[in-house]
Amino acid sequence: MALIELTSEERNGKAYAKTILLNTDTIAVPIREVGGKSYIGVNESIVSGRPYGNLDIVYYLVTEDLATVVALSYDLFSATVITRDGRTPSTGYNDLIFRLDRVVGNIAAEGTGSKFMYHEDNGTVPIEFMVAEAPSAIISQVTIPVIPPVDTVKRYKALLSQLAPIASQTSGTVAIGSIWTITTFETGDNFSNWELISGSANTSGAVYRATTTAPTVWTNGSDLAYDGSPFIVSTDSNGDLNPNSNTLGGEVEFSFPSAGLFEATGTGLFPLAKTHVYFGDIISQDNSDSSVIQGPNALRTVNTIPFMTSDSSTTAFVSGVLDHTPITIEVYP
């Protein structure tokens, strides 16, 4: 059973302009289309209080066409009739809507279409219908789609690496993903193959993310600095350096307040008591087995997640041990 909302124009040929809620279980005969509208026979025996019978069928003309009506309920399906009880239907009775629960027995393939027995309220025995639609076309109309549950938890997942700060480097190679500031640019050098984060390209003050181990040209002594902040080394489906997923609604920035101490910040992203952080195992760059990473049990400052790396054997904070270390941030509603 389903209730469908329709706009009635007539009831038994008389004006009846109302919005009606139609119980699909009361549809008596297949619905047909008349001038772009639908003509629906409804059994109202329960309303009248009389025993079930043909006199209890009331006909409504509604403004919705067949396609609109059939789309309102998975209890209904539409089909183009080839024959009804072995006879070609009259004009206007070709395209009909049927109640699924009125089908008696199976819907069987017949040629390129289907055949089934259908019980109409104004008949004592089921009537054979042959229709143009194949069984697969009928079942697609009455199959309720499976809608996966909506996950309202916002998530951020990425791989992080981190190095000890480098105050000055004037040549050589760097770690992919690390973020560098040109403290002094020398003419002739060219960093345009890296990702420009801020500033003007190839000038002092420009900030770059290293997307390769070396810039296009770095042989003229341009001085670069890395402040020790953790950087993303995970890649997206295009192979670009990005979080594996981010549904937080904003970007997360990582910083390096001091040795072994870090912060993840995001404006309006991390509410207190609803933000939870998980880290994977450290894979330290020096193959040390004593390095550990710790995050907060609960945030103390809104929108700021502190975390740290330390040597478990000495409890001292250490830098340069993050290497493709997983971080997951979850924000609950």
Concise structural overview:
This protein is mainly β. Helices cover 5% and strands 41% of the residues.
3D shape? elongated
Estimate the helix proportion, in percent: under 10%
Question: Taking strands numbered 1, 2, ... along the chain, how are they ordered across the largest sheet?
Answer: 2-1-5-4-3-7-6-10-9-8
> How large is the radius of gyration?
35 Å
Distance between the termini: 35 Å
**How many runs of DSSP E, i.e. beta strands?**
24
Query: Which structural class should the secondary elements be placed in?
Result: mainly beta
Strand content: 35-45%
Explain what this protein looks like in three dimensions:
The protein has three domains: 3-142, no CATH class; 166-226, no CATH class; 233-331, no CATH class. It has 333 residues and is mainly beta. The protein has helices at 45-48, 66-70, 135-142; strands at residues 3-11, 14-23, 31-34, 37-43, 57-62, 76-84, 95-99, 103-110, 113-118, 127-131, 154-161, 166-169, 179-184, 195-198, 207-209, 223-226, 231-232, 245-246, 253-258, 261-265, 275-279, 291-294, 304-311, 325-331. It contains three helices and 24 strands.
